[in-house]
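Can't paste images in this forum, so I'm doing it all in text. The chain is below; anyone willing to post the predicted structure tokens underneath?
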Amino acid sequence: MRIAGDKTDLDWDAFKTGLVSGESPDLWEEAFEVYFSKRLKTRYFKPIQLLRAKRNAEYEGEGFAIVTIQCSLIEFLETTVQGISFRLARTGDPPLGPFEYGIGHSGAIFRSFLRNRQPFPTVFTNDSLADDFYSSVRCGLLHEARTKSPWIIRAGGPEGMFVEITPAEKIIYRNRFQDALQIFIMMYKADLLSNPATQDAFVRKFNSLCI
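Text version of the structure:
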């Protein structure tokens, strides 16, 4: 099973034996580049780039697809930071484990990301706004293929501004939003190379991708 480009679950099982928390930054950087970054590029960034590629299609509604992918990415990023994985617990199944989450918990995951992972807290300064993004943007796009008023999506935006809150509307500048995600990913890389707790969470997450 491929989990990152051409890398498979068997590749990961062999590679992770050399990963030791708090040791070998070069090996953790390889884990980031070969597994984490490659997975993001092939499964998230390349599809977004393809949607953005044709300038004559820039304002025909592809922003809905782009932001939907970005919302999927947010959940993956936050659950990687925490080292947790989704499991649908049906009647009679064992209870969720300490590193599992189920239906009804995605909102808390979005809130955690938007409120704690830079640069997003510069805009999402309270839980209410983060929860509004989850329900009106993420859930709106996923369940109804639309954002709910007053949230709207635009392509460009002022330098450094990925969300703008005005009295009349809340604007997602989806290209700038992508830039903000990239900023977080680079900060995550630095943390992964030095933080044993982040490293342990990384291994848990990628182990879960191989099941």
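The two ends are 9 Å apart (CA to CA). The mean pLDDT is 95.
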